[in-house]
Amino acid sequence: MSVGPVWKGREMDVGIIGGTGPAGRALAVRLASCGPSVVVGSRDAARGEEIAAELRAAWPGRDLALSGTDNAGAARCGIVVLATPYEAAAETALDLADALEGRVVVSMVNAIGRVGRELQAIVPARGSVAATLQSVLPGSEVSAAFQHLPARDLAALDRPLDADVLVCADSERAASETAALVEAVPGLRAVNAGSLASAGPVEALTAVLVNVNIRYRSHVALKLTGLRSHGS
Question: Is 215 helix (H, G, I), strand (E, B) or coil?
């Protein structure tokens, strides 16, 4: 059996729960293009493999370590990203709590709703989707990241990225593993934005960025200036 790409001294495999949506697919193909082995999860294993096959076929010149299965299979990977729609996030996580025990779970879920012609942030009872997930996954270490990256740019492997990714987490392990995952992608820089208490404002910022993109027909990404070093 061949050994896959090594990340932090071990084979790197990333599971994306709910990976068949636009954001999940975009992150899956971008990560797979950078070395990690990626598993696209879906409620139906056949659908997960169908999407993985579509992504591989879309980039025939690249050797993408990309496969598909059901969400339970994706939850068994070394690090797991949750990319479901907001409405399904907590229930999906709760159903997979046993499989996710002891793992870092990265939430890239946003709670956004349309009000008239504008997208607005929905504030969950616990302040953020990430904090809600941590409450239903007491045996996991939850972080928040990737929510504010434009999915279209993330999915376009022929375009280089140049963006910062805000990472929120309550544990050092979740923060460091998530930052390493972010920086496995050339052009992305992880910025420690504090604990999960900061995840709510970051999730809400995504609605603002989407509205800017709609208004200006653009694909803006976040880039912070003035940082001297990570963790400053």
Answer: helix
Please tell me whether the overall predicted TM-score, pTM, comes out greater than 0.85 for this model.
yes
The β-bridge partners of 167 are: 192
Q: How far apart are CA 195 and CA 202, in angstroms?
A: 11
CATH number at residue 212: 3.40.50.720
Residue 142 falls inside a structural domain: yes
Taking only the tens place, the pLDDT of each residue in 162-201 is 999 999 999 999 999 999 999 999 999 999 999 999 999 9
Q: Are 17 and 90 in contact (CB under 8 A)?
A: no
- pLDDT tens across 92-131, in order? 999 999 999 999 999 999 998 888 888 888 989 899 999 9
Share in percent of the chain as helix, strand, coil (round to 5): 40, 20, 40
| 87 Cβ neighbours under 8 A, 6+ residues apart | none
The SS3 assignment for 77 reads: coil
C-beta neighbour count of 225 within 10 angstroms:
5
Q: What is the DSSP letter of 189?
A: E
